[in-house]
Amino acid sequence: MQEASLQGVLKVILIILLIYYGLKVLTRLFGPLLFKYVTKKAGEKFQQRFNQYQNSNQQSEGEVTIDKKPKQNSSNKDVGEYIDYEEID
User: Fold this and answer.
1) CB of 52 within 8 A of CB of 46?
2) What phi, psi does 78 have (nearest 5°)?
3) What is the DSSP letter of 74?
4) What are 44-53's pLDDT values in tens digits?
């Protein structure tokens, strides 16, 4: 059975701390750049989809379309039975 030496434990803790603080510094440096890149790409995708939608929905001049609403049953009489109740004090 091996025992952990104090020097080995301190070395592992030091490496973990260096990695943690190194990633923290790199995130602060490159985080805004990465955020700008991601938002730029998302904006381009939204713009591309919007343009595709606009191009597919364009009507020729003088063309008339009438969209009819489907009939909706607003009341359903077979919903259930109404039960009258009284409050008991």
Assistant:
1) no
2) -95, 30
3) -
4) 999 999 988 8
Per-residue model confidence as pLDDT tens digits over 56-84:
766 556 677 777 887 776 665 666 777 78
Contact 65, 59 (CB under 8 A): yes
User: What tokens were used for 30?
Assistant: 């490159």
- Residues whose CB is less than 8 angstroms from the CB of residue 65 and which lie 6 or more positions away in sequence, other chains included: 59
**Both tokens assigned to 82:** 């109404």
| Strand ranges inside the chain, DSSP E | none
- pTM (two decimals): 0.44
DSSP class of residue 25 equals: H
Q: Which residue has the tokens 């990695």?
A: 19
**In this structure, what DSSP letter does residue 44 have?**
H
